[in-house]
Fold:
Amino acid sequence: MKTLNEIALKVKSLNKKVRIAIAVAEDANTIGAISRSTNEGFVHPIMIGSKARIMELLKDFSLNDESFDVIDVSNHEEATREAVRMVKNNEADVLMKGLVGTDKFLREVLSKERGLLPPKAIMSYTCALELPKYHKLLLISDTAVLPAPDLNQKIAMINYSVKMAHNLGIAKPKVALISSTEKVSEAMPNTIDYALISKMAERGQIKDCLIDGPLDIFLACDPKAGDIKGVQSPIAGNADILILPNLETANAFYKGLMLFAGGELAGLIQGTVKPVVVMSRSESENSKYYCIALSCLMAEVR
Amino acid sequence: MKTLNEIALKVKSLNKKVRIAIAVAEDANTIGAISRSTNEGFVHPIMIGSKARIMELLKDFSLNDESFDVIDVSNHEEATREAVRMVKNNEADVLMKGLVGTDKFLREVLSKERGLLPPKAIMSYTCALELPKYHKLLLISDTAVLPAPDLNQKIAMINYSVKMAHNLGIAKPKVALISSTEKVSEAMPNTIDYALISKMAERGQIKDCLIDGPLDIFLACDPKAGDIKGVQSPIAGNADILILPNLETANAFYKGLMLFAGGELAGLIQGTVKPVVVMSRSESENSKYYCIALSCLMAEVR
Structure:
């Protein structure tokens, strides 16, 4: 796949109808993206929030009365709690943040009693990045959650991203562990984790993918770089997944590409029992639509 | 300035003739870039290395016999040592690496007795990045030397980059201290350094520039981002200089932009008594030409 829109096409072809519980479904961009997905047939939304406000926003979209549900809960915290409860109880397949603040939303998602993260599970974030100048979608992690992932958190990031790649139809994704250099050195502690992970993968401790690192961005994404640098790698400039060494790197990398390389992004929280969509309120309807499609691709629908 | 070529135009307009000592001037790209700069009138090269090989490579370029010097030293280490000595003794204004390995080259540059780094000076690296989609050159640091700069190293990176901006003609450059967020938090230690640096700049401890941070790439480089995020900053999406939190971030950032956003780069070692050009052997003649022009802009010629 080369574009995020192909994710939506794939979801449509699966004939899934994914039930999405939206916590505080009271902003226009969210309603717009959800209505589009509903009309295209792959989503059945359960919009939780002030019914009056939701119905007002829905006026602009010709949704069939049977194609959605609204649950009237005007308090943001209660609406979020109800959305999380529905997902936990298999009354919905995906959780999505609406107009509620991210802190409030994540507090419910992470609640030990009521939340969606299993005990000891590592929460992380994986994005699918569309770049006009790369020949396929690039999955990147972690752009949002883990400031400085340790060895186990890096392995979790890999496993989550590999699962996403599998759902995108890539049987054996190529995982590049990104540093500024391809050399292992104590001066760059992440390269030590990368050497360990490479060996673990070789021993079958991480499965269903091809891993190599440390590699720089050129070795990971430019087929010419290996010859120029004299570095042999099974990734060979054809990476499906980039594991970035820390949040600062991942964040500057994708934001630079969105601003200067026409990049488009769709991402999901990882580690929860069901897909969770968290986007900032300012995100466009289109971005939200791609995120919804990705969450539907990752959802297991009975 | 919007393009690296404008740096060369500016240098030409200054009527400087910069003496560049080239350690092991025995590769075609280096000779090509140096010949072009010499013919354009702003460089007088002193090529140190095997005279036979240098004269062979020079055959392709119609250099006037008076416009260059060759010093015959076939051993790489001795050639490098002689180049460094000439720069240290004011017999040359700029040092440039040719075919010698980077490790060997830097060992001489950093030598306590013979080298070019003053005692206690911090060595760093600043690049000028040309991006088709940004409205001016973007100076970024540190893409090559400091793995995880501490507070004092960050301040040195700022001062070096500000000096380069001044030479580019920017009287009061806007310096953005880059993180994944604009919030100061103990979970992101670099943001603490950034808060300190912002306050130090306010108190006049860092001069001749406008500093703000932490900021993310959007707030630093996209004028629309401040309103969307509700963040007031004097940088306002119009940064001249990006200080990146660590080498991994800087490296992934610029390599992503070179690969996917048509970026072009020219950089210099910082902290030495005279400009030092270190480029990998694989770099194109064009990249080397831009680096030479930048080094000439930074050189103080008597």
Chain B touches chain A at residues 131-134, 147, 178-181, 187-188, 190, 216-218, 221-222, 228-229, 244-253, 255-257, 259-261, 263, 282 (CB under 8 Å). Chain B is about 40% helix and 20% strand.
